[in-house]
Each structure stands twice: as structure tokens, then as C-alpha cells.
């Protein structure tokens, strides 16, 4: 709990400071006097100001944001000798640059964070897949247990290497949202017998990325040898005489190729409220043995499933994904662009009703993921921080009053018409913007609570 809270506060602190520093730095470069640089809102806990004429830096009690207050005639009287340092007196392009600098700073930070994560390197499951889900696109495309996905194809015919399972899932997500088929080059686990398959992601009826869609796609879990791990004392597996290290060859004369197939056979071995006895053929220290295993019945939501109380498989094969300095930067820039486009596309789909508003996340989800990523290691946390930084940058560029994007729309109007938005319309748009933001925040918080309660 403490780790989660600290990780969340660090995440907010870094992203807010970088965002506001973007505004601050460009404002100073444009000759605007910055009165206050605040981290947080509300009661001031700490302040520092070198001279009466310099910027006041403050830390406030509520750390859910920040602001940069600039000299501006619209917010109070300005001394005649300082009129040239007022924000409202600056040219249109200077005001535009100052407002855009915050979101751009977040996007640039995301590039650096993604690159740093690539430089450090992360251990990820190899793109070696287990049994695909029955009836899914992957099975219909011809994927099999033990397939190693080596590369994906571009529209121009070029192939790009896939280094890990997460990279494969990312490409599946991208192509599914775009409604495009995905060409994959696969081989067996040794890297021989290469062949090409096509995931017909363009045939998916829905373009909403959720558990139902991923089930329809049916990519297998990371390949895991059907070698038993820990056996729970007193469970059906232990009672049948199974031991850690046993390799499962067949169940009821059906070959077992991986741990996924083993779990599925066990789960399905139920007749009403009783477990159905299964004939297991195992290999133990080079010797074949036949063992009868009768699972107990457990509830999984509304379903009754079989359980034998053991770890069905070994940890998946892992690879270290790491890049050099230049390639890391290139990958960081590419991933930042891809996530930005994906975020905008998802927001657009939610706006027109093609995607569920359950995809909106709030501070509780961010805090939870922050804690999880910190526990996984520095590289994972930097990658998570990059994703949130992209989201913050893109969100602030939306054309909504109260956000930086709303102010940029005002400046676009001014540039096209030669006159600023009237005070009357500014007031109306501000009220509308506050209502939209409050609605979005309420939905995000509701989604957070629903996820924590297991309702989503």
C-alpha cells in the first residue's frame, strides 16, 4: 500500500512538473513574467522566491495538478513599465507556443522515458505461444501450440522483427483497431519450418479492445511445458500420486502439448456437481506411468470447473528486450506516436459510441498500476510513466475549454478572424468545458471503483 501511494505521488509529481515547466520555460523565453509556479492546488505547504520580482515556486496541499500564473491584464492591474511582459500583450504565435509547450513537454518526456526503458532492458515472455483458443481467429489462421512468432509484415511487404509477446500483442491491438489483417511469420520452437499466416483482424465485428475481442482473436498464452510444478498437499493431484516434475503426455488418450491444454482438460472434467475421473499418462524420470485423477469441483463465476490443486506447467521462456542509444530513441519516438494515435482513436470511438466509456481510467487505476510497475523494476516503471505522460499530453491537447487544447482553439479562431473570442463566449465555453471535464472525471472515478470491486 505504501509503495503504491509513493509511486502514485512520484508519477503525478514528475508529470505535473514537466508539464508546467514546459509552459514556464517557453513563457520566460518569450519575455513573459511568470508570477507563480505551483505544484498542486490549495493551501501552500512550501514556497521559495529568490527576489520580490522573480517567480514564486510553491508546493500546495492537493497534488492533483499544478499551474503557472503569468502577468496578465485580464487577471489584474499591470504596471505600465511591465506591460511588455504581460502574457496578453504577446503576439499570437508566442501565446500559442506558451500554451502548447506543456503538452509537448509531456510527449517529449514520453519519448525519453520509453527510450530509457529500452536502454535498461526488460525481461518479457518470448513470443512462443501455447494452444490458441478454440474457434478464435488464431486457430482458424492455422496457429498451433509451440509456434514462435518471429516477425510481422508491413503493407509494403517488409518484415519487422518481433522480440517478445508484448510486441506481438501491441501489433494485434493496433491492427484490430485499424481493421487491418496482420501478417505473421511463424516457426516451430527451434526457429525452423517457417511459414506465413494471416490473422483476419479486419473481420472482427467490433473494434473495441476488451476481453471479449481478445477472446475472439484467441492468441495463445505464453507456451509452457506441461510439466507439473508445486503439488498442493491434500489436493486431488497429491491424492492421485502426482509429483512435481511429472510431464503430462496424454489425458484420456488426448495428447497434451502445453500447460494451457492441461488446464482446459482439467477444467472441463466435471459432471454436474462431481468431478469426472481422468486417465493421465505421465512421464516420470524417463518412465511412463498411468494415473487416474479425479478433480474436485469449484465455482468460477457462474461455471463449475475441475481443480486438481497443482501448478500446471513451467514458467514461460523469457527474453531480454534491450536496444542501443539511437535505436532506443527511435523506438521511444515511434511508441509515443503510436500510443498518441491509439489514445485519440479510442477517445473518438467513445465519443461516437463505438467503444465503451469503461475504457476511461482515473487516479485509482493509475495508482494501482504505478505500484505494480514499481514492484516489477525500474524499466517497467519508466514504461508505465511514459504511457501516462502520453495520455496527459494528448488529453491536454483536446479542444475543450479549461484545457490547453481549448486555448489553442481560441487562438486558431483569432488567427482566422483577426479578433479574439469575446468575453461572453469565453464565459459560456468555460462553463461548458467545466461540465464536460467533471463528467469525464466522474465516469473515470466510477470505472476505477467498479474495477476495484470486480464489476468491470
UniProtKB/TrEMBL annotation:
Keywords: Hydrolase, Membrane, Metal-binding, Metalloprotease, Protease, Transmembrane, Transmembrane helix, Zinc. Residues 208-258 form the PDZ domain. Its main location: membrane. One of its GO terms (molecular function) is metallopeptidase activity. It is a multi-pass membrane protein. Its cofactor is Zn(2+). Signal peptide: none annotated. It is found in: Membrane. Gene3D superfamilies: 2.30.42.10. It comes from the Bacteria. It is an enzyme of class 3 (hydrolase). CDD domains: cpPDZ_EcRseP-like (cd23081), S2P-M50_PDZ_RseP-like (cd06163). The chain crosses the membrane at residues 378-398, 434-453. Its EC number is 3.4.24.-. Belongs to the peptidase M50B family. This is Zinc metalloprotease.
Amino acid at each position: 500500500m505504501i509503495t503504491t501511494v509513493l509511486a502514485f505521488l512520484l508519477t503525478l509529481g514528475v508529470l505535473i512538473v514537466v508539464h508546467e515547466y514546459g509552459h514556464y520555460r517557453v513563457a520566460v523565453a518569450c519575455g513573459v513574467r511568470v508570477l507563480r509556479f505551483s505544484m498542486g492546488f490549495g493551501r501552500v505547504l512550501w514556497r521559495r522566491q529568490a527576489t520580490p520580482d522573480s517567480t514564486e515556486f510553491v508546493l500546495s496541499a492537493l497534488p492533483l495538478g499544478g499551474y503557472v500564473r503569468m502577468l496578465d491584464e485580464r487577471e489584474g492591474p499591470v504596471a505600465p513599465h511591465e506591460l511588455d511582459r504581460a502574457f496578453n500583450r504577446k503576439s499570437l504565435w508566442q501565446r500559442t507556443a506558451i500554451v502548447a509547450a506543456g503538452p509537448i513537454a509531456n510527449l517529449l518526456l514520453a519519448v525519453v522515458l520509453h527510450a530509457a526503458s529500452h536502454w535498461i532492458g526488460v525481461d518479457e515472455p518470448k513470443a512462443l505461444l501455447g494452444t490458441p483458443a478454440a474457434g478464435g481467429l488464431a486457430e482458424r489462421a492455422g496457429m498451433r501450440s509451440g509456434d514462435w512468432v518471429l516477425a510481422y509484415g508491413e503493407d509494403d511487404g517488409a518484415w519487422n522483427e518481433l522480440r517478445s509477446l508484448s510486441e506481438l500483442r501491441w501489433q494485434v491491438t493496433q491492427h484490430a483497431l485499424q481493421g487491418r489483417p496482420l501478417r505473421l511469420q511463424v516457426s516451430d520452437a527451434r526457429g525452423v519450418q517457417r511459414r506465413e499466416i494471416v490473422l483476419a483482424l479486419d473481420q472482427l465485428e467490433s473494434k473495441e479492445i476488451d476481453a471479449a475481442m481478445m477472446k475472439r482473436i484467441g492468441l495463445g498464452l505464453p507456451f509452457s511445458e506441461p510439466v507439473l510444478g508445486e503439488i498442493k498437499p491434500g489436493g486431488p493431484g497429491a491424492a492421485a500420486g502426482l509429483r512435481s516434475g511429472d510431464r503430462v503426455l496424454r489425458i484420456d488418450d488426448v495428447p497434451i502439448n502445453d500447460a494451457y491444454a492441461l488446464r482446459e482438460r482439467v477444467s472441463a472434467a466435471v459432471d454436474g456437481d462431481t468431478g469426472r475421473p481422468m486417465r493421465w499418462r505421465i512421464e516420470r524420470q524417463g518412465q511412463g506411468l498411468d494415473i487416474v485423477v479425479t478433480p474436485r469441483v469449484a465455482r468460477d463465476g457462474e461455471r463449475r470447473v475441475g481443480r486438481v490443486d497443482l501448478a500446471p506447467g513451467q514458467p514461460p521462456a523469457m527474453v531480454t528486450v534491450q536496444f542501443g542509444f539511437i535505436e532506443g530513441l527511435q523506438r521511444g519516438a515511434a511508441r509515443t506516436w503510436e500510443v498518441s494515435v491509439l489514445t485519440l482513436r479510442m477517445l473518438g470511438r467513445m465519443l461516437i459510441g463505438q467503444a465503451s466509456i469503461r475504457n476511461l481510467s482515473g487516479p485509482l487505476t493509475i495508482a494501482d498500476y504505478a505500484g505494480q510497475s514499481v514492484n516489477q523494476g525500474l524499466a517497467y516503471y519508466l514504461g508505465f510513466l511514459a504511457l501516462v505522460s502520453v495520455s496527459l499530453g494528448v488529453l491536454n491537447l483536446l479542444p475543450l475549454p479549461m484545457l490547453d487544447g481549448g486555448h489553442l482553439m481560441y487562438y486558431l479562431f483569432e488567427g482566422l478572424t483577426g479578433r479574439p473570442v469575446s468575453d461572453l463566449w469565453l464565459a459560456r465555453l468555460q462553463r461548458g468545458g467545466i461540465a464536460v471535464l467533471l463528467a469525464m472525471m466522474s465516469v473515470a472515478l466510477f470505472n476505477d471503483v467498479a474495477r476495484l470491486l470486480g464489476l468491470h
